[in-house]
Amino acid sequence: MKPNKPPRIAVLLVNLGTPDEPTAPAVKRYLKQFLSDPRVIEIPQFLWAIILNLFVLPSRPKRVAEAYASVWEGDSPIRKILGQQVEKLQSRLDGSMAPFEVSVHAAMTYGNPGLPDVMDQLRSEGVDHFIILPLFPQYSATSGGAVYDALTKWSLKQRNLPNYTIVKDYFAHPLYIKALADSIRRFQAVHGKPEKLMFSFHGIPQPYADKGDPYPKRCKCTAAQVAQELGLNDEEWIISFQSRFGKQEWVKPYTDVTLEEWGKAGVRSVQVVSPAFSADCLETLEELAMENRDNFINAGGQEYHYIPALNDDEAHIDLIEALAKPLVAAWAVTLEGWD
Ligand SMILES: C=CC1=C(C)c2cc3[nH]c(cc4nc(cc5[nH]c(cc1n2)c(C)c5CCC(=O)O)C(CCC(=O)O)=C4C)c(C)c3C=C
Ligand SMILES: [Fe+2]
Ligand SMILES: [Fe+2]
Q: What domains can be seen in the chain, in order of their start residue?
């Protein structure tokens, strides 16, 4: 039977997630969901449930809620920026696949808008074709892998499954490297060149990398390509990892330790860029732009700048469009002859 309207293809831009508000109860709800994911914490479940409920959740949310409050802009920055990315991609794709309509949506692995809710809503509106684009440039089981899981868990509950395709990552895509290099050049046109450029990536525990998580290698590849594009020599840049959680060893070198060592060693000026974050968030606006600035300056450093994430830069939207559009076109091909 012919549908009333031409079929619609949905693109989901997915990011990690964030609390609903910067309060201890909301942060507790969010952290409980996030930190209960075995992709994120690989300690045996029963043991971790005890640690999480007895030690982490009673104390961490208050401190973290204060950190969120210091960067909150009417909404969590990561959710606000994801909304802007969705809007800009939507305007690029409007009318591009006629007669089929393309709609773009925000989704989060943890918190709201949650991926399963977004899928349910779109299914109820009759969408049968999806492109899922996690905005994690360097795949890790702990970030992108968790998006695959969320989709699989949702799928297990469906009888009539939709068509979907998921993009694993894009750590060396020429438009990604170009967008990063251009954003650094733009920043340096205003603030000048630093003694050291630091590529600080969100870390993962070292044992995860030892067991085969490809994330650190992908981070190194991204940073090396951007450094090459900028014509930097080996003395002028470094890769480091931030946001450690818990007591185990994480991938090294550590961002905070390196900045402190540099401050003590007489390094005067540093700029920090964080290519793993497709949107500014708590980990960049608070940890990198505030906390780590203090680490460097208190250790004797003079000048410290954080270079913003790609956010809704046109060059970033160029990349996202280049990733999504061919996949939209591929689903459109399968819809030929819909009437
Ligand atoms: C074992 C713990 C964690 C792993 C592994 C991890 C990997 C990982 N995370 C991101 C992106 C983000 N993480 C953010 C916050 C955040 N991350 C962890 C822990 C792990 N992350 C925690 C506990 C938190 C919450 C804050 C806190 O309690 O310290 C964010 C910010 C979200 C926001 O609301 O702004 C992002 C983004 C990646 C890409 C990644 C693996 C590569
Ligand atoms: Fe994280
Ligand atoms: Fe952090």
A: 8-170+315-334 (3.40.50.1400), 174-307 (3.40.50.1400)
